[in-house]
Write a structure and sequence with these properties.
Elements lengths: L1 H10 L9 H7 L6 E10 L2 E14 L3 E12 L2 E13 L7 E12 L2 E11 L5 E6 L7 E7 L6 E11 L2
Antiparallel strand pairs: 1-2, 1-9, 2-3, 3-4, 5-6, 6-7, 7-8, 8-9
Length: 165
């Protein structure tokens, strides 16, 4: 479960520098903007499915506040819905190492979108690949996450729908 929390945090690490990428991708939207993502994959030998809707509640020069609503199935069992608020600071000490950047047009829910593609590696050597668009609250359009070599697991992430305010 701790690795899942890490995956969610890693989704927000999208650019280099001291600016916090998660803040950057939310702060250009107004409160009320939201994105719904689906995550499917495995953690160890357990299959995991999660749907998360993240809504922007507040934007200031120092932080954004978002609310996450998650429904999850693990090993075929539905878990209780979770709701939590998260304060995302504008500045961050450490960001993930970007190995490669490119651009690609992909189709998401019948819409063609130009995306920046970021291939990264975290401190534990997990492999991360994200398709990012400034038109989607939070930035994530699609993602592939492979667990570090010392662990088993992988996750596919897809933005299902979103609304900009």
């Amino acid at each position: 479960m701790a690795h899942l929390a890490g995956v969610v945090v890693l989704l927000s690490l999208l650019v280099q520098a001291k600016d916090n990428p998660e803040y950057t991708h939310w702060s250009s939207f107004k409160p009320g903007s939201w994105v719904k993502i689906k995550m499917e994959g495995s953690m160890g030998d357990q299959k995991l499915e999660m749907t998360q809707t993240t809504k922007l509640l507040e934007v200031t020069p120092e932080k954004v506040v978002v609310e996450h609503k998650r429904s999850m199935k693990m090993a075929g069992q539905a878990l209780p819905e979770q709701v939590e608020k998260d304060e995302v600071p504008a500045k961050k000490e450490k960001v993930e190492k970007i190995l490669k950047e490119s651009e690609e047009e992909i189709e998401v829910n019948g819409k063609k979108m130009k995306c920046k593609v970021l291939e990264m590696e975290d401190e534990q050597k997990a492999q991360l690949k994200f398709w990012v668009s400034k038109d989607v609250p939070g930035g994530i359009v699609k993602g592939d996450v492979k667990a570090p070599p010392t662990e088993k697991g992988a996750m596919k992430i897809t933005a299902l729908e979103w609304e900009k305010k």
